[in-house]
Write a structure and sequence with these properties.
7 strands; single chain; Rossmann fold; binds S-adenosylmethionine; 7-stranded mixed sheet; alpha/beta; 232 residues
């Protein structure tokens, strides 16, 4: 197993779990500096958005680092951003005054995405906290809300093996039991799936075409996946 991950598990084993929104609300000040390492990935996602996209849904948009890159090349795009953290959304609003930006402070598993409302849905570094079963339901909602030929782009980090995936879920469950936190409460603890498992969950959501776009040089942990809803 990855030495760095093992060390992190050992060092944090007695730390209490934090709720998802509370975690991000509390880290707003340093958040964008911390995420600067993904600059090229944000750019990459922006460039992969087809020119035909007019309505975009960003799940777990946070303060909108991917949207900074997207608006730089597509300033007139209509964007709906959904996030649990009110503080992150406030920061995003501040950065993009005057843009067609509809922000919703809600859990994206509960958010009513509608049917055939968007040309593209994106999720950047937000889905690595959930199980395959939770994601399959979400992917089915994403599939439904896309128009024919619509695409879903996901860029997130993956578990390097099934063993690591299972270990992280088991450790999260242990910490939940220790802290008396119910399964239904979102906590900030990373439980990524393997690439194959993630892509299978997207297929189970109804997508006919699911492809690995690739990895950026020097980063074998963060793939970009593209799924397409075929034209009717
Ligand atoms: C690591 S941040 C990524 C934010 C942004 N996509 C970026 O790359 O800068 C993860 C975001 O997902 C949000 N999030 C996690 N679970 C969520 C859920 N169930 N519903 C809505 N937002 C969620 C968090 O509040 C946080 O803002």
């Amino acid at each position: 197993m990855d030495q760095e991950l093992w060390q992190w598990l050992v060092e944090t084993k007695d730390e209490p779990l934090e709720g998802m929104a509370e975690f991000f609300d509390a880290r707003l000040a340093e958040y964008e500096t911390h995420m600067a390492r993904w600059r090229q990935h944000y750019q990459w996602m922006a460039e992969l958005l087809p020119a035909t996209v007019t309505d975009l849904l960003d799940l777990g948009c946070g303060s909108g680092l991917e949207l900074d890159a997207i608006f730089a090349i597509r300033p007139r795009l209509r964007v709906t951003g959904v996030d649990l953290s009110a503080q992150m959304l406030a920061k995003l609003r501040q950065k993009h005054v005057g843009k067609a930006l509809h922000l919703v402070c809600e859990d994206y598993f509960r958010y009513e995405m509608g049917e055939s409302c968007f040309d593209a849905v994106i999720a950047f570094e937000t889905l690595h906290h959930f199980s395959a079963i939770q994601k399959e339901t979400l992917f089915a909602k994403i599939f439904r809300c896309l128009r024919p030929n619509g695409i879903f782009l996901e860029c997130d980090y993956i578990a390097q093996s099934r063993e690591i995936e299972e270990l992280l879920f088991a450790e999260c469950a242990r910490r939940r039991r220790r802290d008396g936190i119910d399964e239904a409460v979102f906590v900030h603890f990373d439980t990524p799936l393997t690439l194959a498992h993630e892509m299978d969950a997207i297929r189970a959501g109804g997508f006919q075409t699911v492809e690995l776009v690739g990895f950026l040089p020097g980063d074998a942990h963060t793939p970009l996946i593209r799924a397409r809803k075929c034209g009717l």
